[in-house]
Amino acid sequence: MNIGEIARRSGVARSTVSYALSGKRPVSEETRRRIQAVIDELDYRPNATARALKEGRTRTLGLVIPPAGGRLTSMQLDFVASVVEAAGRVDLDVLLSPSGADHGDSFDRLISGRRVDGVILMELRLTDPRITRLEQAGTPFVTIGRSNNPDRTWWVDLDYATLVSRCVHHLADLGHTHIALMNRSPELMSAGYGPATRAHEGFHDAVRSRGLTGTESCCPDEAPAGEECTSRLLTEHPQTTAIVTINEAALPGVQRALERAGLEVPAQFSVVGVAGRQWAEEFRPQLTAADVPSLEIGATAVDLLTARIAEPEAAARHRLFAPPISLRGSSGPVPGR
């Protein structure tokens, strides 16, 4: 039995039931009695997570996003939306806070001011000082992404190494022997950004295992950069017949560069990757890709964090997503095969 059923039987909104249970907002005595009668009839008992959150001081989760100086990608925005939606379903607020660069004060205020009951970190580095700061402060936290010491922390992540490797194997099965990886920006690579580093590892491991020739370029997260990187790739490595990418924001530029070069997709050139469904479906023809399950990842992060708040001494929990490659129209046999 859940809050939704109690609300239905009481003839009130879910939020009203939540307010009656938590005391976060006032509820009329008559409404409270009606809700309590249904609770008694159903023998409803809030679970451990609900009880722990009820005892919290803020009923607010912190979501640490990339600094405002750089534009959020579509995938990052999807993560933000999914966290906010999942938190709302359990009557929690979300406080957004940038971190990094010139925004260290914002992160410190979030923690030292005890403005939230727990924190979700996005855009994780393999060695991330924010983790150390949260551990020192004793603040419950969950990361979207994982560090180079993942066993001791709570996290949810996308298995970029496996997904990029699957993309390479898919292209190799189609006869492609010269494949390029379009990764994220040079700055993210040098900072030890988890997805970029693991995509690099998965790509080169798969290339070696299949005896292929692989090249890699790091590209800023924008369409003009994607166009420039693709044009340079075609000039410097004309034998390349396929691109694997995790840089969804660069995809429109990749398409423009291929069209300008007179290369038809997939008859003369294939493009595959890891991307949000929206980006994959806007590519022409639609992109063969592992669709990033943003909603599930964001919701899982909220579930893990509420569980950690409820059970602060529990062993660390993890969830690694590896969605299948959705075969669409952008990949085909190597030209001439």
Describe this structure in words.
This protein has 337 residues and is α/β, with parallel strands linked by helices. The chain folds into 3 domains: 3-45, Orthogonal Bundle (434 Repressor (Amino-terminal Domain)); 60-158 and 294-321, 3-Layer(aba) Sandwich (Rossmann fold); 160-292, Response regulator (Rossmann fold), CATH 3.40.50. It is built from 14 helices and 12 strands. It has helices at residues 3-10, 14-22, 29-42, 48-55, 74-89, 104-112, 129-137, 160-173, 186-190, 194-210, 223-236, 251-260, 277-282, 294-310; strands spanning 60-65, 93-98, 118-121, 141-144, 155-158, 178-183, 213-218, 242-245, 270-275, 288-291, 318-321, 325-326. Strands 2-1-3-4-5-11 form a 6-stranded parallel beta sheet, sandwiched between helices. The protein has a 6-stranded mixed beta sheet with strand order 7-6-8-9-10-12, sandwiched between helices. Helix 4 crosses helix 14 (294-310). The relative contact order is 0.13. The model has no long low-confidence stretch (mean pLDDT 89).
Categorize the overall geometry: elongated
- Could you say what the CATH architecture of the largest domain is? 3-Layer(aba) Sandwich
Instruction: Supply the number of helical segments.
Output: 14
Mean pLDDT: 89
Helix content: 40-55%
- Count the strands? 12
CATH topology of the largest domain: Rossmann fold
β-sheet strand percentage: 15-25%
In which order are the strands of the major sheet placed?
Answer: 2-1-3-4-5-11
Radius of gyration: 23 Å
Main sheet? Answer: 6 strands, parallel
Which CATH class of the largest domain applies here?
Answer: Alpha Beta
Count of all domains: 3
Please mark out the parts with pLDDT under 50 across 5 or more consecutive residues, or reply none: none
How would you spell out the order of helices and strands? Answer: HHHHEHEHEHEEHEHHEHEHEHEHEE
- The SS-based structural class is alpha/beta
Kindly, what is the distance between the CA atoms of the first and last residues, rounded to a whole number of angstroms? 59 Å
